[in-house]
Design a protein that fits this description.
Length: 243
């Protein structure tokens, strides 16, 4: 039986209209992907990424006008996962230096496309989280020691330039880590990104408003900001009952 993965939001960036349509068709056939947008230039794609925080994959052509694929990626602070598409093998090595998950050489067949998507879903897509996920543990460095924490003890994570602070009810641990890296380490079944600077344990969320949410730290409420581009993603993670 094939594993079941949630849909991954993706965009396509390719200045060749024929291949843009072909990739749209390929994505449309995939139950693992949700197409958010298609773009014939990098600038328009970049504008979308600046306004949304829920794009997880880019199918990216390399040679494009104004800004090629590599310049496009260099302009992004935290780029999503990338599958490169190209009509030439010449850029393959450079593509993997940009952490490309796969490199699809045109003309791309649908079976080859499927193998690339299966790879990214197998290794990078959020999984269904076991019921005992909160009992899983990590070790965090504090001074010269390593401290054992259960995942459920982490209330939220806050980004501080090149560091992040991991906050529990009793302690605050500051480690040399990027927000994107720690987001990939913590299970999406337990944590949700609410802002470019905040990642929150979903079990401690008590209320959500337009631009903020309230969590409980001990017996005291704490208000954290909600980024506009992350709000839709938060709402997808929760069950809502309305009259």
């Amino acid at each position: 039986m094939q594993p079941h993965w949630p849909e991954m939001n993706c965009i396509i960036v390719d200045d060749d209209p024929i291949w843009l349509r072909t990739l749209e068709e390929f994505v449309g056939k995939s139950a693992s992907l949700s197409l958010v947008g298609s773009f014939s230039d990098s600038v328009s794609a970049r504008n979308l990424l600046m306004s949304r925080g829920d794009i997880e994959l880019i199918l990216l052509d390399i040679m494009m006008p104004e800004m090629d694929g590599f310049d496009f990626l260099s302009s992004l602070e935290n780029p999503p996962h990338i599958i490169f598409v190209s009509g030439s093998e010449d850029y393959a090595f450079k593509a993997f230096n940009y952490n490309g998950i796969d490199y699809l050489l045109k003309p791309i067949t649908y079976p080859r496309f499927c193998r690339a998507i299966e790879k990214i879903m197998k290794y990078y897509a959020p999984r269904a989280i076991p019921s005992n996920v909160g009992e899983e543990e990590i070790f965090i460095k504090k001074a010269s020691s390593l401290v054992r924490l259960k995942l459920k003890e982490i209330l939220y994570v806050e980004a501080l330039e090149n560091y992040v602070s991991v906050i529990t009810r009793d302690e605050k641990y500051t480690i040399h880590f990027t927000m994107r890296a720690i987001e990939q380490q913590l299970p999406s079944g337990l944590f949700v990104r609410i802002h470019r600077s905040y990642l929150v344990n979903k079990s401690v969320i008590r209320s959500i408003s337009e631009n903020s949410l309230t969590i409980v730290v001990g017996s005291a409420p704490k208000i954290l900001p909600v980024g506009k581009s992350y709000r839709d993603g938060i709402m997808n993670y929760i069950n809502i009952m309305t009259r």
